[in-house]
Amino acid sequence: MKCCYCQKSIIKNLTIKELLQPKKSSELCWQCAKLFTPLSTVNSCDGCQKSLLESEKQFVQSQKTFCTDCLYWKNRYPTYDFCHRSFFQYDEAMQAWFQQYKFIGDVRLAKTFEKQWQSLPKRFPDYLFCPIPLSNERLAQRGFNQVSQMLTEARVTFQSLLDRVKHQSAQTQHSREERLAMPQPFALGVEPEQIKQCKILLIDDVYTTGQTLFHAAACLAEHQPTKIRTFSLAR
């Protein structure tokens, strides 16, 4: 077996079960696995899982602690009971991984976090999983949707509930203020009855300002789902 990131051989002792019932799964070698930092829920914002430093302003509402970013979103979307979670910190190691996977286009890396994605159905039972869509222009340029591809490799069932009807330049080319001012780019891609009274998990690759996911949630919320939660690989 080879590491799904660095492609070096992984040497390990197999159990009898693994010998008799081999699974087609991807795995990181221990050197690559330790590159990525899991995102903790300790001393973090209850809204977006952002790590809260002692020097950072914190706001307590209904026995929950929120960062300044989430306070902004709560004021902007007062009726949306949002809750975002992520697997990893968006640090230098994760940025390097995204550079190779998302921007260089090494689609083989979609298998890197297969085990993490496979945990979602147990964490969010009875939810419809909806990856954030790309515009037709971006999809043609990149060749694949980075989120849908990871879910496909992990064999996690998802549905395309949204269409991205407005093409925008890459998020990395905009300042925080410009991102927050971006107009709604999404439209419902299915019949409204298909999501009415359903629980939906919106899934993106990276959470930065949160604007993309809040736009997507606002689009879905108009059609009466019972609950909307958001998730990303990194934050």
Number of helices: 10
| Estimated structural class | alpha/beta
CATH topology of the largest domain: Rossmann fold
Number-wise, the strands total 8
Rg calculated over all Cα atoms? 19 Å
CATH architecture of the largest domain: 3-Layer(aba) Sandwich
**CATH class term of the largest domain:** Alpha Beta
Query: Helix fraction?
Result: 25-40%
Structural overview:
InterPro entries: ComF/GntX_DNA_util-trans, PRTase-like, PRTase_dom. Residues 142-233 form the Phosphoribosyltransferase domain. Belongs to the ComF/GntX family. The protein has 235 residues and is of the alpha/beta class. The protein folds into 2 domains: 41-76, Wheat Germ Agglutinin (Isolectin 2), domain 1 (2-Layer Sandwich), CATH 3.30.60; 82-165 and 184-234, Rossmann fold (3-Layer(aba) Sandwich), CATH 3.40.50.2020. 30% of the residues lie in helices and 16% in strands. The protein is built from 10 helices and 8 strands. It has helices at 16-20, 30-33, 68-76, 92-103, 114-118, 120-123, 136-142, 146-153, 176-180, 211-221; strands at 59-61, 64-66, 84-88, 127-131, 162-164, 186-188, 199-206, 227-234. A 4-stranded parallel sheet has the order 3-8-7-4. A two-stranded antiparallel sheet has the order 1-2. A two-stranded antiparallel sheet has the order 5-6. Helix 10 links the parallel strand 7 (199-206) and strand 8. The longest helix is centred in the middle third of the chain and has 12 residues, at 92-103. The protein is globular and about 55 Å long.
